[in-house]
Design brief:
One of its GO terms (molecular function) is oxidative RNA demethylase activity. The protein is mostly beta strands. It has two helices and 13 strands; from the N terminus they run E-E-H-E-E-E-H-E-E-E-E-E-E-E-E. The structure holds N-[(3-hydroxypyridin-2-yl)carbonyl]glycine and fe (iii) ion. Fe (iii) ion binds next to loops.
Length: 205
């Protein structure tokens, strides 16, 4: 485990066999909850990343804003359940007393990236966000709690985990670029990032 600007970096958290099982589980989720193109609030500009979710809640973004909701924005169906191996990953990495409620699945094709952002749409900001990467490697940047704070980069490979918790929970972070063709895990290439989140406090106030 390494500290990257307060983020906990766990290289090789998942081995090859676990990654293959997880890739299959994600393919099944995508069959039930197809990838959608999120759009920026106000401008409606399309993200370069496509998304879906599993869990009781899923994160969506459209012209009206960012939010968590119970169902898929296009099919209206409830999100598929979070696979047990992801609940196990949360239990191993999160150090938090309840289960995650949402798993955002980010899909990176050629040229996709993710701008510097904070994850702050969760009421349970005392819970960390746990990230797992599959497929092609990507340059992940993490800074401080202000957009202009100094940042560090780390190349995330298939199977690596990142935990943003504690003082780093509200750190700005993003994906500068994906290194196309760096992994053979995913049949169609590209990169998948999973972020497990607790949205609501354990005992609602
Ligand atoms: C990505 N990750 O790796 C984007 N968010 O594709 C995130 O936005 C992220 O890695 C919260 C915590 C960890 C993360
Ligand atoms: Fe994020």
């Amino acid at each position: 485990m390494l500290d990257i600007n307060g983020a906990l970096y766990v290289p090789g958290f998942l081995d090859g066999a676990a990654l293959r099982r997880l890739a299959e589980a994600i393919a099944a989720i995508l069959a039930e909850a197809p990838a959608f193109t999120p759009r920026m609030p106000r401008t409606g500009k399309a993200f370069s990343v496509r998304m879906t979710n599993c869990g009781s809640l899923g994160w969506v973004s459209d012209v009206t804003g960012y939010r968590y909701q119970n169902g898929h924005p296009e099919t209206g169906r409830p999100w598929p359940a979070i696979p047990s191996m992801l609940l196990d990953a949360w239990a191993a990495l999160a150090d938090w007393p309840g289960p995650p409620e949402a798993c955002l699945i980010n899909l990176y094709g050629t040229g996709a990236r993710m701008g510097l952002h904070q994850d702050r749409d969760e009421a349970a900001l005392d819970a960390p966000v746990v990230s797992l990467s599959l497929g092609d490697s990507a340059v992940f940047r993490v800074g401080g709690q202000k957009r202009g704070d100094p940042s560090r980069s780390v190349t995330l490979h298939s199977g690596d985990a990142i935990v943003l918790g504690g003082a780093a929970r509200l750190a700005f972070h993003g994906i500068d670029r994906v290194l196309a063709g760096s992994s053979r895990l995913l049949p169609e290439g590209g990169r998948i990032n999973l972020t497990l989140r607790r949205v609501t406090p354990l005992r609602p106030a």
